[in-house]
Amino acid sequence: MATCSVQEWMDARGDENICPDDSTYHYSEREIIIAESLSNAIREGKTTISLLLQDLKIYIDNGDDLIGISTGARTPKNVFEEENSDKTALKLLLAIFERIQDISEQELHFVIDYFAVRIGNEDNHPAYDAGLGEIILLFKRISEMNAFNPSESSLIIKSIFTLADEKHRFKDLSNAVRQEVYTVVSYFFRQNSHILRKDFGTDKLVAGLLELATFEKKASCLLIVFPLISHISQFWNLGIPQLESLFTSFIRYFPIKIGGLQNESLRLSLEMSNFLTECIVSNNFYASLAFPHFIQILQDHSSMSATTTHEIFIMINTCVKRYSREVVAAWSTNLWNLLKFEVWNSENGDYVEDCLLILKSITTSLEREKFSHDETHGDTFTKFVTEISNQCRDRMVDSPQKFLLSSGRIIHSVASSSKHAFDLVTTTILPSLLALSKEMKLGSERMMLLRVLHYLLRAFVELLDQKDLTSNQAMIETKGALAKFQEGLVEMLSNAVVEFKRIALETSPVGDLENDAICFVPALESLALLFRIPCYLTRVEEGMIVQELIQILVKSPRDGVIHTEGLHALKNISIHRPTVFLDMILPSLLDELSGLIAFDSRKEFSEIQDINSLLNDVADIACHPCLKELDTGFPKGATSPYCHRNFDCFVSHLLQKIDIFFLNKDHICYATATVVALLKGLKIFDGELNSTHVKTATPDPCILPYEFFWSQILKKALTLNQNLGENSVSDSKKQYLDIRQIPNEGDFLEDSFLHLVGNILLIISRSKLNTSDNNIVFKFYNQSLLLEKIETKDFVEGLPMHQDVIEPDFMEIPRVSLVSIYPLVGVQPLADDDKYLTKTKIRLGINQNAGNLAKNTILRLLNLDERINSRTRITILYYLQILIAKFHCSRDELKEGGKLLDFIESLVRDSHHKSPQYIQKLYQIIAYLTTASFACYDLKMMRPVFRILCDGLDPEKHDSKTCTLVAQSFRLILAKSRILSEDNYVQVRSLRKGYLLELTKPLFTQYRLHSKLVTQNIGCQHKGKDSYLIALIGILRSMELPLLLNVISIEELVALTLDGTNVSNDDWAKAEYIKLLRILIREQPENTEKHIDIIIERMIERTHNTLERPSDANVECRILALEVLRLVIEKFGLSLMPFRKVALMIELAVAKDDCHAGVRQAAAQCSLALIYVKV
């Protein structure tokens, strides 16, 4: 095969591409063939690089064809866009070098020397300034070849440095070419630095680099320059002049500011800031330049933005952390003299936080463990900390009002850096503080002093937490400066708590007394910290403090600051010291509860508010994950990790209380209040446990989450029974669930108790502690248990699903569903299940049977002979919704054939001759089914059931009450549901809104028809129109305005809204229409202004409320109407006719005499807006 020639390459000029990411060329197929042919010829010895270069010189030295030489002066982006640009001779050479590896050292030298001279261009040849980008890429490729002699690096670098001459050739190059130049320079500086430094010396290399980067502003180039400067500063032995030059070159870029697209500029700013930071900290010498530079800027930062000031503080902090200990020690005093005044005098909280962070970093740096603590280092550290402590002490003593808090924050930041620093600060500060406390009389000063003590104690506790010490190690750490002042410190804080308690025991601590109490809040926080210091308090002292706090808690008003702070202190103690909670806090609180019950035994249920409040307080204190194990270690027989200790104890004790309350009929209400507290506690604990990052041992996989709680609370509510009812259709003698009877009384538990137990089971069922392999619902609802004959009455917890799943007839007592359905609602699907939860249903025993369960449930709800109260009916409807939305029961075949939808349609067809009560119950069921089908976006169910629901609005088919009830049920479809939610693993689809709006179009049509139709029965026409208005707003209230305007024009929507404000017998719908009108005025003023008269008229009809002509609107509607009027005045006040303003003033005067204060206030605001309308 004949070898291709250079001429063929030149003739093959055509399309070309360059990748913008890596600046490498992508050649056409013809170019690749030519390059491969010439490369093979070089390998076979048919030609050489020298001969090839001689052939190319006629093109690359031709000043008349600079484009033919190269397009290197154009940016790669332009090369990429202009796909028809000419081929260049230099690209052929680059293409060949990309394909060969073995070239003699002499030929490489020939090529390098030729192009080095070309870049130098001492004769100002016009052709030599073209193709620089390709030459740089060629140098980059040559440096990677085996035959490359590192000594050639000097020749390449020397030629590159000539680009930064007085002609500014380098500055005029494209960004991409400059980027390649920096890349090549960086490569040689890193790989062959020993040769370059030998040939040039570091001063010339640094000068050459800085001359290249003198005018550099492009981020992509600086991202190469900054790391290179950081490298040579760190690893080259540079002299002071070179370091000063380098510092001057890069410090001018601080702080980094980049414009452009937000995300991209943010990324570049962050990346460049990191590289620039590395430059600043790359050499300890830079500290002598950086610190004075930053200090000078900060001393006059009045003209700087807050962001820039913050960045300077952050940079100083980084420098302190990264420079050597000796350097930080040399500058520590200067920095302290700058920072202390920022803390003492600055009003900017962010600046203060930054300064405190720097002070802590300085202290930490001066005591780095990697340095030996010899006498010199020890003196530097001690002198610095002591100087700060002395100055802060003097400021606090001389001017406590001004400097107590700010100095306290300083000593906290310093003391929290190390145990040594803490001892120095404490020894200097604490004696003065204790003496000062005896002299202070002002409450504000005493509060600040207590806050400083809190800062000091918090610093010590933070040190203990950082080291994660064992109890013995912590005891050793505690033996220091803090132990010397134990007696005085405890006495001071105890006296403050006694004073706090005195205020709490006042008859009605309000006003000034509440303000006085705030002064002692830091004392409570400090005492809570003392509990976290091992063995600092004796058991007697701990008991006395706990009793004082409990007295504060139970004696103070529940909504006051005293109660809140006492609760907070007990909670913090319990979280960090579960032993104190178990031994002292919980028993004392339960004793207080027993005392309240004994005192309250003759009161009615409505008068046990104190008991409810105390139980709530117990839940708030006990039900947070513990952060420490018991003092005695892991308890024998326990399986849960230490974060459960307080909660498990809380549950156990309150369950025992329930058994005691059951023994007395008069105390059943207390049992209900106790279950409320258990439910609240479970919500707090489970919610926080999911977000608490604590080191916990893996629990025993055989012990399920909350298993004890689940089993025991079920036994409190339900029992087993074999006595079937007279009307039962089943002959089975298996046991079924029944409501637990109250001992010795014969009465059954109330619905409220059962409902609370059901909600406890719901939270446990959906807890994230459950897994596919360790799920409490799957264990108790295992199929094997369901098929066994259970004879013992102690196994209540294994049966809730048994009745509903296998034999629905066994649910003799409908109220059992208040408990039994919630595990099914909250159960967590298996991890690898499909979207229909097939595997989960199999595990639960309801696969292909969920449809039959739904059918039986519907028949039960429609049974007029069975009395089911409202709470139970709603709960069973929730069960029905879960079967549809979560378990997709609409797909199942029923035993009698067909699907659930077919069954519902048959019920509707057969309902024409049924009683109104039956029809109303049927449409209630359909409304809940519709809501569930839209939630899961069940395409086969949504349209049919929604159509059926719409048919229930027809006044010719149903009585007015039924139509109104059906219309009101439309608001359920898009309403937020605690059952149909992601918390219960129901995927609520957002697409349902648009689809529902499409299905709503016939309702708009029916509304228009009833608005225009003239019939003899005017009352029937109005009721039909109202029903459609009520139904429509139930849907429209949840729709965004742009979505609505895709279905209905703005004119029709305004007319509908105005009509809706007149709807009768439904205040909720009326209020929602007024809210919609408010939105229309705010977002569509140009389309509502033309209706201004009718808007004012309708709103006045709502607000006018006198004895002679009372309003048809409730308080909420009247307030909303006044808000609309105010919005009308603000938006269109200038266009109001004078007579309309007068009418408005008259009606507003009437509204200002309304019987409700909220209406009067809204009317006054509206009147004020009318007064300020410019005429």
Automatic annotation (TrEMBL):
Pfam families: MMS19_N. GO terms for biological process: DNA repair; iron-sulfur cluster assembly; protein maturation. InterPro entries: ARM-type_fold (IPR016024), MMS19 (IPR039920), MMS19_N (IPR029240). Residues 82-345 form the MMS19 N-terminal domain. It comes from the Eukaryota. It is found in: Nucleus. Its main location: nucleus. GO terms for cellular component: cytosolic [4Fe-4S] assembly targeting complex; nucleus. Keywords: DNA damage, DNA repair, Nucleus. Key component of the cytosolic iron-sulfur protein assembly (CIA) complex, a multiprotein complex that mediates the incorporation of iron-sulfur cluster into apoproteins specifically involved in DNA metabolism and genomic integrity. In the CIA complex, MMS19 acts as an adapter between early-acting CIA components and a subset of cellular target iron-sulfur proteins. Belongs to the MET18/MMS19 family. This is MMS19 nucleotide excision repair protein. It comes from Golovinomyces cichoracearum. The lineage of its organism: Eukaryota, Fungi, Dikarya, Ascomycota, Pezizomycotina.
